[in-house]
Amino acid sequence: MRELRDFLHRLRCAPAVLVTVARTEGSAPREAGAWMAVFGDAVMGTIGGGHLEFEAIAQARGCLARPSAAATLRRYPLGPGLGQCCGGVVHLRFERVEASMAPALGARLGVAGAPLALFGGGHVGTALVRLLGELPFDVTWIDSRDEVFPPEVPPNVRCEHSDPVQTAVVDLAPGSRVVIMSFSHAEDLEIVAACLARRRQRDDLPYVGLIGSHTKWAVFGHRLRARGFGADELSAVACPIGLPGIEGKQPAVVAVSVAAQLLAGLSEN
Predict the structure, then answer these.
(1) What angle, rounded to 10 degrees, do the helices at 185-202 and 214-226 form?
(2) Domains of the chain (ranges plus CATH)?
(3) What is the mean pLDDT of residues 28-32?
(4) What gap in Å lies between CA 269 and CA 265, rounded to an integer?
(5) b/e burial code for range 103-133 (CB count within 10 A of at least 16 → b)
(6) pTM for the full model?
């Protein structure tokens, strides 16, 4: 994700101390694997904030001042030692890193994202891509209009032109979550039909979400039943998409609601 990319880019110019949550006991502000990079004049990432992070930064700066400092593991009791309400224990690993280690660090710290296919490069799609750039997804952004994509996208997003757009469904990675918000209802319908056909054949698309209203879905449902899809198959499509209770139709509001729903789905799986 962007934070890791920025860390590795900055590492080309200056060494840092990488602070990693090695393991936790009980309640803790971050999970094992969370990291923070401490440079002489900057801090990137977070291990949870608070007094724990303050102490870790001080320890890291001390390591940074000693070029020959070996990697160390330190135990931090959060309640009695640091006065934090979490009350658990965090074990932090401190290691000095430099430019030559960047490829290995990228492989180690990079988290494989869940595959996600986003159909539609409109206002909501663009707003959603901005959020997904910070989230644990590997995004394929698809549109029938080749010129619609912005010149720069997050590193975990790949743009793909497909015309007709629904033909891209066949080649999606197994386990892809699919979000459909193309520029036309006709395209939306064909994409949904292609997803239902793939689910019938392979049952490997755990989430299919369609932007729109209950009325739109009622019309789509009628047309899809005419194509031979049954009620059980149609029930697999989420429409409207997003978390209930989040009001507003502005692109950013819809994007936040959809991203939250996708994250909730990851937690459930």
Answers:
(1) 60
(2) 2-109 (no CATH), 114-268 (3.40.50.720)
(3) 89
(4) 6
(5) eebeeebeeebbbbbbbbbbebbbbbbbbbb
(6) 0.73
